[in-house]
Amino acid sequence: MSDVASPTLPPGEGCHGGRETMQAAARAAGKSAALDRMLADYPRGPHDQPQSMCPAFGALRVGLRMRRVATILSGSACCVYGLTFTSHFYGARRTVGYVPFNSETLVTGRLFEDIRDAVRDTARPEEHDAVVVINLCVPTASGVPLDRLPREIDGVRIIGIDVPGFGVPTHAEAKDVLAGAMLRAARQEAAAGPVARPRERRDGEPMVAPIGELFPADPPGIAALLRPMGLGLAPPLPAREWRDLYASLDCLAAAALHPFYTATVREFHAAGRPVIGSGPVGVEGSAAWLEAIGRAAGLPAARIGAATDQAVAATRAALALHPVQARVTVSGYEGSELLVARLLVEAGAEVPYVGTALPRTEWSEPDRAWLEARGAHVQYRASLEQDLAAMRETRPDLALGTTPLVQAAKELGIPALYFTNMVSARPLFGPAGAGALAGIVAAQTRQAGRFSRMVAFFDGVGAGEAAGYGSRGKPADPPGFRERQRKLRAMRAKADEAVGS
Ligand code: SF4
Predict the structure, then answer these.
(1) How many other CB atoms sit within 10 Å of the CB of residue 327?
(2) What are the record keywords, sorted (predicted)?
């Protein structure tokens, strides 16, 4: 039997036990430090948890997208089923490892030994640079100690992380849990001695390291903005290959383009690298960002000015091609919502509301201040209810948001776009971003007439009494149905009252 502490999850509890129960169990099982770290890195509030998919998906996706990295899940079968299904739906084309457990292996600590065996089997240096193990809710609450796994086996790094839904609010932040853990390991390796040469590193070229999952056209676009200053762009984080982590760490400055990568930023700071917030969006955003990068790099003002002038002219021209004359609400859980809103305002849109599922951090402060100065309400950790209320109150010409928000908007005849598939799947930064985003928003806001015709055409279909199937005409209540239901309700209320007394 292993010397691993026995789980303290109350019998019969599990994923549905509630956040407090799970947190208490995790603390009692020795995970207090890990939990405190998560709660500090990913603060909650104003309400506890935005509606989003299982947070662990973010970490799983980061692992699955990396070359020569194997990813193993440790958790309940239902969670693993959902996570593997979603990852293959998004084209993982990679095996997701799974170490199953039952009450006995969990209670006796055998699960930890099973994970260790699985890691040993998987850590083949000819195939992998690293093996990632992710503890889901139940193993985390039960104290399965992934920090006791060997740190490497035959040169293959072993990265064990806890990503419970009761500690990490969104799948976006779960990306940071793994990206930060990997960067930490790479930093420690680089500090200890020579490491592998990054694939695309040009000797002596000072680099800026972008943080955030970017649309593929964005890194070349940002690189073009930096080139006049004599700066290059390191591979973005989360990384696609282990050796890219060394290139990122070797930067002159890091750019927190997505502002919620707290653990990742901590590693850059530990490596002595400055971290710049916001991003090169629109005319003012690009100018401010290039100036901040240039200053961090210690470049002369003339060189910064030349690069800024070039970016400003190209972005202004791109925006002029697609003027937006519309009221737009923006909401999502990607972390780029504030940047998108800035770009829309510069394109001419009125943006009364920006909701993001992510927390307020210092790296989005310039964007928050800029937007609020232009009348936008910025809601961090926004819930679906807040996004819906803002959309209903402000009646935008276009709503950008999550799928339930888009559905609700369309039912009201308001044109709407799904943020993840339609906005995040386009460039955002520099002139390319200005052209792409303003272009699609301008096109969509011209659709309002079609939406009202659609709502009028389908008026009453599938709603209220007309819901359900199998009716040939308009469904009607059987005679006396409502009266009988009213009497039944009254009788039940009376019975409840009698029990109460
Ligand atoms: S791992 Fe936790 S948050 Fe994810 S599906 Fe399972 S119970 Fe839910």
Answers:
(1) 17
(2) Bacteriochlorophyll biosynthesis, Chlorophyll biosynthesis, Oxidoreductase, Photosynthesis
